[in-house]
Automatic annotation (TrEMBL):
Keyword tags: Repeat
Lineage, broadest ranks: Bacteria, Bacillati, Bacillota, Clostridia, Eubacteriales
Pfam families per UniProt: SLH
Domain SLH: start-end pairs: 93-156
Entry protein name: S-layer homology domain-containing protein
Length: 344
């Protein structure tokens, strides 16, 4: 069930995704604000494939992608290995690398990447695990994953020309101020890039290796129409009402007979005009399947508001206790973000 209490701001969740969380730690750097709405959508897509996880669970119970922060070298290698579909394999590895400064949670990932020739250390015994990862470094990692060799196909300090030619350098990537959001952009683009000397893409390689299925890949990058069809195809779901906008469609439905849950559901399916891009199905908070009150779509189609009223405290299935009061929600249909105000 959705978690709705004691938090003023929460990122929306991708409907029907398994929330895979990790507790990676890293070094953040101060940087100017950037609109990372589209990258958050890409992170949701990669998360659905198990290729990009958050840095933990926020106090609101949702995945924190921490996209604004610069990744550390240890994080960058971890993100790379997961993007290659080798998360499980890396977790089973012991410490086979020669470095003394790698934290325990990253040992398997660094061991895998080092053994495969995807990364090197800053010296014979140090990896520089907490040093900030640069854009050139992560691009070098990804080019190596595609089968290219630095010193032969490109130089490690200038991978940009080859990266652009391979199609793994989106225009939104900030080369100088490289953040986790940029790593998401590069990783998502790399899925459709061809491996060196072949007609096969990285995604096709991962599908062949069983990292994820073709159906899961198609679903992660589906169109608005396909996402709407997927919601309607749920045998336990019955649509009750919908609100149409240029940025997406809000659907109120009722689920009955499902072994997981019974009650009302509220979700947003994004259209191409949304900053998140199209085809994402995002659940909106409801308390234990309670019907939303006073649902209203704004005249400009950018926001959707509704409320949930609790006459007495309510304990959710998650164990979280919601205090009595009115929970007023505002959904930004362009970004998928939800703000909440609790009125006593």
């Amino acid at each position: 069930m959705n978690r709705v209490c004691r938090k003023k701001r929460m990122p929306a969740l991708l409907l029907c995704l398994v929330l895979c969380l990790t507790t990676c730690l890293g070094i953040g750097t101060a940087a100017e604000w950037r609109d990372l709405s589209r990258q958050r959508g890409q992170a949701m897509r990669l998360q659905s494939l198990g290729l990009f996880l958050g840095v933990g669970e926020g106090s609101n119970g949702f995945t924190d992608f921490d996209l604004e922060r610069s990744p550390s070298r240890a994080e960058a290698v971890t993100m790379l290995v997961r993007a290659l579909g080798k998360d499980s394999e890396a977790k089973r590895l012991g410490t086979t690398h020669p470095f003394t400064d790698v934290p325990a949670w990253a040992d398997g990932y660094v061991s895998y990447a080092y053994g495969q020739g995807l990364t090197r250390g800053t010296s014979d015994t140090t990896f520089g695990a907490w040093d900030p990862a640069t854009g050139a470094m992560y691009m070098t990692f990804m080019l190596r994953a595609l089968g290219y060799a630095d010193g032969e196909d490109f130089t490690w300090d200038d991978p940009w020309t080859l990266a652009e030619a391979c199609g793994i350098l989106p225009l939104t990537v900030d080369r100088g101020d490289f953040r986790r959001a940029d790593a998401v952009d590069v990783t998502a683009a790399a899925l459709s890039a061809r491996l060196k000397g072949t007609d096969s893409t990285l995604a096709q390689k991962l599908i062949a290796e069983g990292a994820f299925s073709q159906a899961a890949y198609d679903r992660a990058f589906q169109t608005y129409e396909a996402a709407m069809e997927e919601v309607a195809a749920n045998a336990f779901y019955q649509e009750k009402e919908r609100w149409e906008s240029d940025y997406g469609t809000v659907l109120l439905g009722y689920v009955t007979g499902s072994p997981q849950s019974t009650g009302y559901t509220l979700c947003l399916v994004t259209r191409p005009a949304a900053a998140l891009d199209e085809g994402l199905t995002i659940t909106l908070p409801l308390a234990n399947g309670q019907a939303p009150e006073q649902p209203v779509l704004s005249q400009d189609g950018q926001t959707f508001t509704y409320a949930i009223h609790l006459d007495e405290p309510l304990t959710l299935q998650t164990g979280m206790v919601c205090e009595a009061g009115t929970y007023a929600y505002t959904v930004d249909l362009t970004t998928g973000e939800v703000t909440m105000e609790v009125r006593s």
